[in-house]
Amino acid sequence: MNAKTREGPPDDREIVRRLETHAVKHKRSRAAVWFEQGGLAIAEMKSFADLANKGIGDIRRFLRTPAQRSRAIHYYVSSDVEISHTSELGVFLPIVRVRQKTAPYLHEATHVLAPCDHCPLWFSEGFASFVQSYVSEHHGGYDGAVFANCGNAGIDDKAAEWKATPEGVAVLPFVGRYAEPPYLEQDRSNVAAPFYVMSQSFVKYLVENIEREKLLRLLTARDFKARLSSSTGKSVGQWKREWLTHIA
């Protein structure tokens, strides 16, 4: 079907095709960024390409991955992107969020650099949000603030606020489980927001109480729950109870 007459937004492959054919590309050593034409000034495009490139290096330092020559991460910045996300093709960001300096470019790059294929969603998303806040607070750039603009310093208070609401109570059982809460994608304000905030707070608690090397090994564990239990001596449930006491 012709792109002009198809129903719904274009998919990732169509966005890539459009941008790689007609967009403005800025290439750096670790990042290749395609920008929709006319959406940003040249200076804005250059600045974001520099930010994305630096952020990749900062995330790698946090992850303690060795410096090596590897394929650059591809970023696609377009008005056709409704929600920031990552796929096997690269990182997709709404152009309005790049313009407003609220794009979660560090969060999404973390998903690429630390895919966490067998992790539960709460850990994968919570870890990406934690790293985003950590890198911006310690190395520069900005925190994309997916669902909170308080950084790691204020995420526990924000989690406690959500926990006291009906929406927070509804999603709390899914923080620490492999399942994801219903309507996570459809209801971003009432389901995704408390889930992401509480997940980031929980991961922050784990980061503060588990040796860095042990924590990073969770990213590659095929059995996340078993690895967490064997490496720390505590189950997910025990860690969750401690975290809930901490934020209370």
Structure description:
The chain has 248 residues and is of the alpha/beta class. It folds into two domains: 12-113, Zincin-like, CATH 3.30.2010; 121-247, Neutral Protease, domain 2 (Orthogonal Bundle). Helix content is 54%, strand content 9%. The protein has helices spanning 12-22, 42-63, 95-99, 105-113, 121-139, 151-163, 166-171, 188-209, 212-217, 224-232, 236-247; strands at 24-27, 31-35, 73-78, 85-87, 90-94. It has a five-stranded mixed β-sheet with strand order 1-2-3-5-4, with helices on both faces. Strand 4 (85-87) and strand 5 (90-94) form a beta hairpin. The longest helix has 22 residues, at 42-63. The chain is globular. The termini are far apart.
Concise overview:
It is built from 11 helices and 5 strands; from the N terminus they run H-E-E-H-E-E-E-H-H-H-H-H-H-H-H-H. It is of the alpha/beta class and 248 residues long. Strand 2, helix 2 (42-63) and strand 3 (73-78) form a beta-alpha-beta unit.
**Helix proportion of residues, in percent?**
40-55%
Q: How many domains, in number, for the residues?
A: 2
Distance between the termini: 54 Å
Task: Give the biggest beta sheet.
Answer: 5 strands, mixed
CATH topology of the largest domain: Neutral Protease, domain 2
Mean pLDDT: 93
Please state the overall shape, judged from the principal axes of the Cα atoms. Answer: globular
Find the structural class using helix and strand composition.
alpha/beta
**CATH A-level architecture of the largest domain:** Orthogonal Bundle
CATH class of the largest domain reads Mainly Alpha
Overall strand count: 5
Order of helices and strands: HEEHEEEHHHHHHHHH
Pick out the low-confidence regions: 1-8
Oligomeric description of these chains: single chain
The strand line-up of the biggest sheet is 1-2-3-5-4
Beta-strand percent range: 5-15%
